[in-house]
Amino acid sequence: MDARVSVIDKRLKNIKRIISVASGKGGVGKSLVASSLAINLSKKGFKVGLLDLDLYGPSSHIILGVKDVFPKEEKGIIPPNVHGINFMSIVYFTEDKPSPFRGIDISNIIIELLAITQWGSLDFLIIDMPPGIGDETLDVIRLIKKSEFLVVSTPSKVALGAVSKLLKILKELKIPIIGVLENMSMTRSSFIKNEIDSMDLPYLGCISFDNALEESIGKPNRLLESDFMGDLDNLLEGINL
Amino acid sequence: MCLFYFSTVRFKPGFSLSDFHMHEWALAESILVAAVEAAEKEKLKIISEIKISIGELQQIEHDIFEFALEEIIKTQGGKLKNVKTVIETEKSTLKCKSCEHTWDFSDMKKKLNEDESEAIHFIPEVAFVHARCPKCGSPDFEIMTGRGVSITSIKGKR
Ligand SMILES: Nc1ncnc2c1ncn2[C@@H]1O[C@H](COP(=O)(O)OP(=O)(O)OP(=O)(O)O)[C@@H](O)[C@H]1O
Ligand SMILES: [Mg+2]
Ligand SMILES: [Zn+2]
Asked: A102 contacts in B (CB within 8 Å)?
């Protein structure tokens, strides 16, 4: 019997809300949204954790500009505090080398991380998810019972095709969906909004394509001032965050 | 990346609570939580013995793990009050999916530096990141045995 799973609920007990930022599609801005959400909430005075569960292609550490830190060992491992955010990622252990994992390994890593990470009490834990409905998504659903999903799409029909599959499975499993956020919008179009409305799910609003965003990567203070953050902040107001 | 301020503490004989900061504590706690859960299912009032298997890749010293178990048991009491714990190490076997060569952690460890080996101690699967098949160089191998912390049996009274 694998003992580690039994202790996960206890590790997450003192976290008020867990928000997984997910999408059926890759490259739509999940990591940017997850990191920016964490920075935004932390700036508002909340205690925030960020967990990067994209084990093949972790990117939150790049967005936050995390360097030269390592978790402290204390009855488990304590995520380092980076710009006010308690940040946990596989990169502490991979030294950012390529990570060729198969599905079973992914599950084992997620279980290990959840079993040994001591988050303490948090208002929010934000999870940066990899794309799709594979092992990571299934494990979050299985192991983190109180996770809610914030789903990201781009304006494209191509993105929506994959995104709507994730939404359908979350709905089928009765997992709480905060809503769908449209990212990188370049023209005014109500295509995504109409589609999400027709699925009877909350459409949260859109974030415009931000030409200057790249200059804020790795610099949380600049990210706070970016147009991207401005749009995100407006949209968060609509859901009381 | 700096991993190493604790390795000297970890293997120091005769630790006290004050330098007891190892992450093993979290795994020891998971064993006891799982054991109590299983005992409740089986309607055991008292747990007298828990047999624990620790994978070799975890690189956990038995006495450190035992110390952690004892500390937690002291604060818990209840069903666990007089429990005896027996710890076994499960030897590691690694098998290459490309060439079918098999090897073990002691072969692997020779090629790892201290940081890499410490990283595997925390998350055994990062073996795929830091090691390769010694025969063909593939990263596509399998941990057949020797990972994880599990309960192999529980004894108790109804
Ligand atoms: N609104 C935006 N304006 C401009 N660039 C953006 C915007 N949103 C995201 N990007 C950029 O798009 C790229 C992909 O974003 P990101 O890595 O967050 O996507 P992802 O969904 O997390 O990808 P993956 O599926 O690989 O995890 C990044 O370079 C990011 O900076
Ligand atoms: Mg990402
Ligand atoms: Zn091989």
From this structure: 142
